[in-house]
Write a structure and sequence with these properties.
Alpha-Beta Plaits; four-stranded antiparallel beta sheet
Length: about 110
Amino acid sequence: MAEPLARIGNFIHVYDFYTKPGTSDEFVRLFVEWDQGSSNPMHGTAEQVREGVLCRDENDPDHFYLLGEWSDKDVHRSLLKRLHESRPRFQDLLRDGPLRPIYADVVA
């Protein structure tokens, strides 16, 4: 049997967002540069159970999902606030403003 995507009791953050038309490749480049750099506040905390994955909608190259598993919503919210305050360059390419997650509790 395969390992589950996430553990019961944790939560998945789900970001569902669009980039400005024609900027998706630049967004991916800037996001990866930031994500793999030292300024990402989400990395290095025990509450991040699994690193996030950035996914692109196969039907719309400007539509993305960012998913990750965490154990503490308050910690994630606090770090998200820091992320918004630091204004990484990829945020300028978002169509509808800063990233806003949906928190989905893992129940089964």
